[in-house]
Amino acid sequence: MSDPIPAPDTTSFPPSTPMTPMPSAAAIDPASAVSTLPPAAAEAIPAAQPAPTQPTGVPERYDLALDGMTLDSQLLQTADPVLRELGLSNEQAGKLLPLAQGVMQRTQESLLNHFADAAAAQKRAWAEEFAADPEIGGARRAESEHLAARGLDALGFGEGHPFRQALADSGFGNHPDMIRAFRRLGQLLSEDSGFARAHAGSASQRPVWERLYPQEAK
């Protein structure tokens, strides 16, 4: 028969400590719960970012107008984000329009002056080239001008005709090749008095292109 098991010695254990009951979930304050976190853990929680707001006075939509000028819709769309970034009100943005109009007008005037100067320089260059041409210029310049004018008259482009005025305004009337062509036409008129003129209307006369290019007509 085995020996009886001795009873445990409870004298070596500390007295039991009563357990503190856990608070219910409803009793936990979220603010106090967060505040009990360690500093490092609390800093790791991102702060709520406020919703972006547009500056005070910036309208939902810019309504801009300028007296005597139609504003380009695409240009306004391009300028809209810039005006918003600057925080301009509709009234402040409207004050910029006269300034922008002045800049545009000055730019247009500058471009027109540039084109006018370039056109005048080209007209002078053609006139100088015509005067220096040994075939139609120099001592033969007056004759060339007379014959060219006669050729224009024969085609119905007399003094005051829009085409003839366009030649003078554009400077093409001084172009050596233009003068050479109408001079040749004037020479044909001098060589053959039966040359068909614009006012003749005779079907029996040979056409102008045959008179100008007799070799090709054969």
UniProtKB/TrEMBL annotation:
It comes from the Bacteria. This is Peptidase. It comes from Novosphingobium pokkalii. Residues 1-34, 198-218 are annotated as: Disordered.
